[in-house]
Specification:
By secondary structure, the protein is α/β, with parallel strands linked by helices. Helix content is 49%, strand content 12%. β1, α2 and β2 form a beta-alpha-beta unit. The C terminus is likely disordered.
């Protein structure tokens, strides 16, 4: 059987043309500017203290942290999200964490930092510390499962003297234990410098006013700023 060379040549030309087109496409993709990366989310997960109870959102420490991020030139890298409900207990936080994380997935946002700031309402109601610890650990477990690269912060709380010395000691120790067990950064007391100061609290004596929220933001920024500027490390 004989082969017609005139029939082969067009086939080779088509193959060469296709190869050239593929090569040109790859080169264009390499030389084209990459799409701008979305900023990572800093989720502040808490209760009325994080929800800026009695104040406008702009006066709350989450909004103030966002301002500090912008002033530091990190706005293209990080955005703050306050996921907080007034009166929230650890059980309530555990019930809604999947919903909060699902929101990030829907918007294709990466979780860069997760701060857990729950437990105060459990303590004020005298609820079981063991149950609170289990709930808070459950929240952290879900965060680590969905976002293993996220850096974790545990915000501790203290109880007033009327709760009893034993309860108070076990309550505050819980946050230390959670931070250590989850390789998280610990804030020993979220209301450091604010609690008990009438000038920094609303008339109820519990919730920070605008000046008190500024103190919380300043304290948190001392911990958060170096964390945002260092390379991301995988959680052990």
């Amino acid at each position: 059987m004989t082969t017609n060379n005139a029939q082969i040549r067009p086939s080779w030309r088509r193959s060469l043309a296709a190869l050239f087109a593929i090569s040109l496409g790859l080169l264009t993709a390499l030389l084209s500017p990459k799409a701008e990366a979305r900023p990572e989310t800093i989720m502040l997960y808490g209760d009325s203290l994080t929800a800026a109870h009695g104040l406008s959102r702009n006066e709350g420490y989450p909004a103030l942290i966002q301002q500090k991020i912008e002033a530091a030139g990190l706005a293209s890298d990080y955005v703050v999200q306050a996921s907080a409900i007034s009166g929230e207990t650890s059980a309530g936080g555990l019930n809604r964490i999947k919903w909060s994380l699902a929101g990030l997935e829907r918007s294709q946002q990466k979780l860069g930092v997760f701060m857990l700031a729950l437990g105060a309402n459990d303590g004020l109601r005298g609820q079981s510390i063991n149950a609170m610890k289990a709930n808070l650990q459950g929240i952290l477990d879900l965060v680590k499962e969905k976002h293993p690269d996220a850096r974790l912060i545990v915000a501790g709380m203290f109880m007033p003297p009327n709760m009893g010395d034993d309860y108070r000691a076990r309550f505050s120790a819980t946050f230390d234990e959670l931070a250590e067990a989850n390789h998280a950064t610990l804030i020993p007391f979220l209301l450091e410098g604010v609690a008990g100061n009438r000038e920094l609290n609303l008339p109820d004596g519990i919730h920070p006013n605008a000046k008190g929220q500024q103190v919380i933001a300043d304290n948190l920024w001392v911990i958060l700023e170096p964390m945002l500027e260092e390379p991301v490390m995988l959680q052990p």
